[in-house]
Amino acid sequence: MIYETLQILKEQIDDYFSEIGLVDSIILDNIALWESGNNDAEKLNDKVVVTLLKLEEEATLKNSPYYKLNNLKTEYKNPPVHLNLYLLICASFQAYDRSLRSISKVIEFFQSKKVFTSTNTAYNRNNVSMDVLDHFKFNVDIHTPTFEELNNIWGTLGGRQMPSVIYKVQLIQIESDKKLAASEAITQISGTINDMRQ
Fold first, then answer.
1. Share of the chain above pLDDT 90, in %
2. What does pTM read for this prediction?
C-alpha cells in the first residue's frame, strides 16, 4: 500500500499540473540520487520529485484485538499496521523561479484536496500494482520541520537544499490475509436455568 499511495499522489499532482497548464514532470524517485554522480541522477534533473522520507507507525491503533465475522465464522488475525508516511516533494529545476512556482502549485493542490478516498480519486487502474486496490482513505497535511531538522534531512540525503515541502500522509493500512484462527460464531444460547435458591 505504500507504493500505491505514493503513485496515486504522484498521478494526482501530475493531473493538477496538466489542468493548470504546467508542463513540469512529476516523478516518484529517491532525491538522494540527485547529486550521487551515478547514471540515475540525470533522470532527476528538471523534475518535481516525490520521495518517501520516513515511515511512522500510528501507535494509538496498535493494541486493539482484531477479529471479524465472515459467513457465521469468527476469524482472528493480527491487527493491521497503520502507518504515517512523510513525503518530501522537491523541485530540481535549473531555474530557481521555476522551482518555486512548482512547489507553490504543489502546496496549492494539497490545500484544495486533503482527503483522498477510492471514491473521490481517479487513478490508473491499469497499473499492475493497483488491480488489488479496492478501498482506501488517507489524509495529507503539511509538515513543518525546524531549521535543524531540515538541515539534518538534507544532510542525510547528501545534497544541497532545494525548494521543497514535506507532507504527512496519515493512516495507510497494511494487512495480510493470513488468519491466526477461526471458529464458529455463537448465534444462539440454549439450556435451562435452575433455581439456585436451595
1. 42
2. 0.78
